[in-house]
Design a protein that fits this description.
By secondary structure, the protein is mainly beta. The protein has 2 helices and 15 strands. A hairpin with a 2-residue loop joins strand 4 (114-122) and strand 5. The relative contact order is 0.13.
Length: 241
């Protein structure tokens, strides 16, 4: 019996080891070693498939910048023309003659208001002055003259068209007993005449009188015993400038 004691001890130790191994396996059902970790598992998992790069839509071709509009051609105003018509409100008439850079105008209501103007015509702009602080300013083109005139304290606005003979502006001067008298006429396209007879500067007459009727065929007007010979103030021919 004593000879078998070491063998028994060896077998007993082996049996105890088996029991401990079984107990350890029952405590960790996964059967993985205690040193197993999620990090280790991650290191052994297959690499993730890289995501395909995002595909952006092709950029639309940029539209060419619109071409800058070409500058509008500037209309050259006529350098030889005559205009005539009624002022705003119909209280009088106005006539304008342009010859080159010179301009002459006349405004008249046939009685109390009459004034002559002289000045310049440059790039479609008229600037003229008259006696007694009267003034005339306007713009003009091929069709009409539009502006404002102040005469005898009365302000008129107007827009009058181009006219042709016998319509237009006429003027006459005469010397009577050493005094100079003046007359002016505006002949409208419908044949209507508006004019004034301006007394001599030293006359006792308070204001102008209505001018006698002008015969546009002969260019004359009869004022009592006096025959007035009118000269057209014509922008086309330059007469009267």
């Amino acid at each position: 019996m004593r000879r078998n004691t070491p063998l028994i001890t060896l077998l007993t130790g082996a049996a105890l080891g088996v029991v401990l191994l079984v107990a350890s396996m029952l405590a960790d059902p996964s059967g993985k070693p205690a040193s197993y970790s999620a990090a280790a598992a991650a290191s052994t998992s297959p690499p993730a498939t890289p995501a395909a790069p995002a595909t952006s839509a092709p950029a639309a071709p940029s539209s060419p910048a619109p071409a800058a509009p070409s500058p509008t051609a500037v209309t050259t105003a006529p350098v030889k023309a005559t205009y005539a018509g009624r002022v705003g409100g119909g209280g009088g008439s106005v006539a304008v003659s342009i010859h080159g850079s010179q301009a002459i105008a006349y405004v008249c209501n046939g009685s109390t208001v009459e004034a002559w103007f002289k000045g310049t015509a440059v790039n479609g702009v008229l600037i003229m002055t008259g006696k007694n602080h009267s003034h005339f300013s306007a713009i003009y083109d091929f069709g009409k003259v539009t502006g404002d005139v102040l005469a005898h304290g009365t302000d008129y606005s107007f827009s009058v068209p181009v006219v042709t003979k016998p319509s237009g502006l006429y003027r006459a001067t005469a010397v009577v007993r050493g005094a100079t008298i003046k007359a002016g006429w505006i002949v409208l396209p419908d044949g209507t005449q508006v004019g004034s007879l301006e007394p001599a500067s030293d006359s006792s007459a308070p204001s102008a009188n209505e001018a006698p009727v002008l015969d546009v065929t002969t260019g004359t007007a009869q004022a009592g015993h006096l025959v007035l010979r009118a000269v057209p103030v014509d922008g086309v021919t330059g007469s009267g400038f």
